[in-house]
Amino acid sequence: MSQVVQKTLNSLSSADFVVRHKTSLSAFTRTRKFPFQTLCLFLLNLIKSSIQDELDEFFKVLNQDEFEKRTVSKSAFTQARKYLSYKAFGELSDQFIE
Q1: For the range 8-17, what are the long-range contacts, defined as Cβ-Cβ under 8 Å and sequence gap of 24 or more?
Q2: Predicted pLDDT at 1
Q3: Mean residue pLDDT across the chain
Q4: Rounded CA gap, 76 and 11, in Å?
Q5: Using alpha carbons only, what angle is made at residue 98 by residues 22 and 89, rounded to the nearest 5 degrees?
Q6: Positive or negative CA dihedral for 14, 17, 20, 25?
Q7: 96 vs 98: CA distance, rounded Å
Q8: Where exactly are the structural domains of the chain?
Q9: Dist. CA 35–CA 80, nearest whole Å
């Protein structure tokens, strides 16, 4: 695994990083289908088609399913996204540059 990917995964898994980049103290505290790390990884993925199609394909690959099934809805994505600060991607971008 490349150093960039490993550093990104380490940052996304860091409790400190999560605390700095969530918009609410209660966000991402319970175990859900769209935790902080998964949400960020999905957003880093280049979206080429509709959000729901991309979500279905992303979770198919993530869960290593042979068949595509609806794991997360577009609404769940939208609700999770509102608790994520845009500043997380600025920090990740700075790490890429290093």
Answers
A1: 8/44, 8/92, 8/95, 8/96, 9/37, 11/91, 11/92, 11/95, 12/36, 12/37, 12/40, 12/41, 13/37, 17/88, 17/91
A2: 61
A3: 88
A4: 23
A5: 25
A6: negative
A7: 5
A8: 3-97
A9: 8
Mean pLDDT of 30-58: 90
Spatial CA neighbour of 80 closest among 13, 30, 46: 30
Q: For residue 4, what are its two tokens?
A: 């960039």
For residue 37, pLDDT beyond 70: yes
- Give the angle 85-98-6 at the CA atoms, nearest 5°: 70
pTM: 0.85
Tokens of 12: 């996304």
* Tokens 């600025």 belong to residue: 90
Average pLDDT over residues 55-59: 91
